[in-house]
Design goal:
38% of the residues lie in helices and 18% in strands. It is α/β, with parallel strands linked by helices. It has one domain. Helix 4 runs antiparallel to helix 13.
Length: 380
């Protein structure tokens, strides 16, 4: 294991540790020892989560941005225009903290459609928003990475046919697998790294996950973050690769605690708006209340307004393996060999994954069951 990679989470099965959830599941089957997911356990386990920090969230966001700026020479923000990355961008700009690059990715060459599921949010929101910023500060670089060639190259490699299953923990889609290749395949990044400068990717992971257990609210972390840093990056642990989760970082647990307490205070308060809640299964990890014998769950949009002051609603993929974002990949006969390699890998996963590990035991394609950290209590 490696201290750099460990901060993004790892699994233990008895005395054995791995970054790969699939390997952990295989060992669970073999040894009958349930995997435990560790996410900055030492720091978070010794932090007092019951005390709400005195600083405002905006002050803490600025502290976090300055922390990251002070550690690296060249900062790249991966920007989708969703609320998490939008808040990071606002924090850097509003506090006059230098950001070197705003970057997004799409699959325009593959889709040939600016308004497809994947490309629309970049074309209609991310690019215009970034260009407004850059119009005011020409020192900031703007980049849109097209994933099409990355995906085709990766899935042309027959040696990769099952490897990608061990590189992801929650999202196995082709577009997700490509992200660990950016620094070795994008020439500008290679040149910066070869010059001896430290280049860091900033990721908008993640919003606080709040649970009501035995009448008390607690915070937990969930292993659904491989869309930012996947297992290949963690396994390689190359010293010139740097990533930072802006929010879920052991460098500033006070920021996570403040977010969590703001959500908890709303759930405990007298100004509840029932329109902020959903009784269905859209999401059950942002907080809940009991109302008239029913459990109501706080929506993602409501959490965004509480912790960022605004909300966005981008379209999320509905399938962990065959994402709408990659529909061009398996609908075009020109890349049938690459698509078959991927499909065969997913068939392999369906064969080896026990139903216990299905998020929904009746439907493999609803995804893999999440692993969670210990409960960090917000109330005594």
């Amino acid at each position: 294991m490696n201290s750099y990679s460990d901060k993004f989470g790892y699994y233990s099965i008895g005395n054995y540790c791995t970054y790969s959830k699939l390997e952990a599941i295989e060992l669970h089957q073999k040894l009958d020892i349930h995997p435990e997911w560790h996410f900055n356990d030492f720091v978070f386990g010794n932090f007092d989560w019951t005390a709400e920090p005195k600083e405002t969230l905006k002050e803490l966001y600025a502290i976090r941005a300055k922390q990251i700026r002070g550690k690296y020479d060249y900062l790249v923000l991966w920007y989708s225009s969703g609320s998490d990355s939008q808040n990071i961008l606002n924090t850097f700009i509003d506090n006059d903290i230098r950001l070197d690059e705003i970057a997004s990715f799409w699959a325009l060459e593959g889709d040939n459609n600016y308004h497809s599921h994947f490309n629309r949010e970049i074309y209609e929101y991310a690019i215009p928003n970034a260009l407004k910023i850059i119009d005011k500060d020409k020192s900031i670089k703007h980049r849109v990475v097209d994933l099409t060639r990355f995906i085709l190259d990766i899935y042309s490699d027959k040696n990769f046919k099952h490897d990608f299953l061990y590189h992801s923990n929650s999202m196995f889609s082709p577009n997700n697998a490509t992200k660990s290749f950016f620094r070795e395949k994008i020439d500008d990044y290679k040149k910066i790294i070869d010059s001896g400068k430290s280049l860091c990717f900033i990721h908008g992971a993640d919003k606080p996950r709040i649970f009501l257990e035995n009448g008390r609210y607690c915070l937990k972390f969930i292993d659904l973050i491989d869309t930012c840093v996947n297992n290949r990056t963690m396994q390689l642990a190359r010293p010139w690769e740097h990533d930072e989760f802006f929010y879920w970082s052991a460098d500033l647990p006070q920021m996570i605690a403040k977010q969590a307490h703001i959500v908890k205070n709303y759930l405990r308060g007298d100004s509840i708006n029932l329109l902020d809640f959903d009784s269905g299964a859209r999401g059950k990890s942002f907080g809940a209340i009991e109302k008239n014998g029913k459990t109501l769950y706080l929506t993602s949009e409501a959490v965004q307004r509480l912790i960022y002051g605004f909300s966005t609603q981008l379209i999320k993929p509905s399938n962990f393996a065959f994402s709408e974002r990659d529909s061009w990949f398996w609908s075009n006969s020109q890349q049938i060999d690459q698509a078959e390699l991927y499909k065969n890998g997913i068939k392999k996963l369906e064969t080896v994954l026990p139903k216990y590990w299905y998020s929904d035991e009746s439907d493999f394609y609803k995804g893999i069951k999440g692993c969670v950290s210990p409960a960090y209590w917000l109330e005594k």
